[in-house]
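I am going through a labmate's work and have reached the protein record below. What it holds is a sequence and that sequence's fold in token form. Please read both lines and tell me whether the tokens look consistent with the sequence. Do not assume that whoever made the record got everything right. Thanks in advance; the entry in question is below.
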Amino acid sequence: MPRFVTFGELMLRLSPPGALRMTQATSLELSFGGAEANVAVALARLGCPARFVSKFPDNPLGEAARRTLQSLGVETQILVGGERLGVYFIEAGAGNRPAVVTYDRARSAFAEADPTEFDWEPLLDGAGALHLSGITPALGPGCRRAALEAATVAQARGIFVSVDINFRSKLWSPAEAAEAMDELLPLADLCFASAGDLGALFQITDPSYERSARALTKRYPNLLGVSSTLREPFVGALGALRGGLLWKDSYVESQGHTFAIVDRIGAGDAFAAGVLLRLLEKADPRDAIEFGAALGALKHSIVGDFCDISRREVEELLKSGDQTGRVQR
């Protein structure tokens, strides 16, 4: 099985208990999260060798972050230095009230890392795939250069490169993000891009995700695949999603999943991990998108960023089609 390498910032996650609003909270629950680390954890929990590359401060929070990842089976390659770990506050949504994220990540150890600190030749040793996201280049010119150098080395070594656009309007503008993607996506084999990302960055607004994905491959002809969750209207208090995948000119969509939402954060990262894993295992595109969509749906049942779901649990859902969440006896 190939080793997956992900690169990005891990943050301290602080959230009010339950569905409390930040203005109501008298305490905050502590955990960790971040898009690229979320993918590494999901892969590790599926039984895959996963390595996370980042930079943490030399303090108890940095050590706690490292230990948390290692306890979940992730191999860590962490530079040590800088003054602080980035923080984000998450107010959980409920019903039709959306979740709200507030960032406090300026001047973090990762954001201020010198890109020359990351020696990509040894960091990518044994790697079969490198996963990046558009969040990393949004954090500053040094992070942008580091992500680009990682992708450049990976491509030169024949390592599969996956990029999730993950546009964050609180971090940069659509024009800035599109400029960075024009550097990064020509080095990628697979791109995760939501309909919202495609519209904001590239003015691709076709209501058909298949046509939108094909439009992106015309802009970046090196891409072998484009994929995304396809969110569907809520059914009462339930969330719903499918997955779409354009892979080597063949387009497939998964079956739909409905679920009660415990935590929305990290579901897209779990979906990406599932699709990426199955494609690297040479699965049929239909199998890859079904696996990714099922994993993304299951992540909604778990509090926190990280997807603690085994391969067996995904396969059981796909085999049984049972979405009732009934007790297993």
The mean pLDDT is 94. The chain is about 35% helix and 25% strand.
